[in-house]
Design brief:
Elements lengths: L4 E4 L8 H15 L4 H11 L5 H11 L5 H15 L4 H12 L3 E6 L3 H11 L7 E4 L10 H10 L9 E4 L2 H10 L3 E5 L14 E3 L2 H19 L1
Parallel strand pairs: 1-2, 1-4, 2-3, 4-5, 5-6
Helix pairs in contact: 1-2, 1-4, 3-4, 4-6, 5-9
Length: about 220
């Protein structure tokens, strides 16, 4: 029997990026002797996506003496040390794989920081594969991103599957375009009715994993 595919977004789906960044920003401004206004600015700069060029801008704004490369290296190390993935999420990924799923991560961002998080949290050891957009200049919602993520898991995107994530456009919209069914992790937010709806909406990734396990159990029961 073919193993079904499920791809998970990383930030604010498998890990709490927002909470991690809040703590990091506080440490960053303290380390460099900056104030609350600087903390708000720095947090805004890294809130969406962070690349080395982000720190070039921050360095210039606050006249920091450390080179951009050093600021980026410390950022990757700091985030890796602070980020975590709940044990029940890792166990859920294992349970999906034990139930026959191919499990992968499909995430936008810089390869350095995203892989640092995947390894530090242990997620890399609990999935079949992961793809980061910078590795091939293919960002969600581009269908090529999902195809490369599926390939990392040893399957073809054309075989279908699921995408789980918190971003309505990148994860849900992109997943739909790629021919995947979708689960939206709402994180307490209402759905934007202007965007095509996901197949399922859940409160968090644990709920998504439970939903997938029930879907596969129902499928096995039906075909048997």
């Amino acid at each position: 029997m073919r193993r079904p595919l499920v791809l998970f977004d990383l930030d604010n789906t498998l890990v709490d990026r927002r909470g991690t960044l809040d703590g990091w920003a506080a440490e960053f401004v303290s380390r460099h002797g900056l104030g609350d206004e600087a903390r708000t600015y720095v947090l805004g700069m890294v809130s969406e996506r962070t690349y080395p060029s982000t720190f070039d801008t921050i360095r210039t704004r606050f006249r920091l003496t450390a080179p951009t490369e050093e600021l980026w290296r410390l950022y990757c190390a700091d985030i890796a040390a602070m980020v975590s993935c709940p044990r029940e999420v890792l166990d859920g990924l294992d349970e999906l794989r034990a139930a026959g799923w191919r499990v992968g991560v499909a995430t936008n961002g810089a390869a350095d920081i995203q892989w640092a998080k995947l390894r530090a949290t242990g997620i890399a050891n609990h999935v079949d594969g992961a793809f980061v957009s910078e590795e091939a200049d293919a960002r969600k919602p581009d269908v090529r991103h999902f195809a490369l993520a599926a390939e990392r898991c040893g399957v073809a995107l054309e075989d279908g599957g699921w995408m789980v994530g918190d971003n309505p456009v990148n994860d849900v919209g992109g997943g739909h375009t790629a021919g995947l069914r979708t689960i939206w992790v709402d994180n307490g937010r209402p759905w934007d009715s202007r965007v095509p709806a996901p197949d399922h909406t859940v409160a968090d990734v644990i709920d998504a994993i439970d939903r997938l396990l029930h879907i596969e159990a129902d499928h096995v029961s039906t075909v048997s």
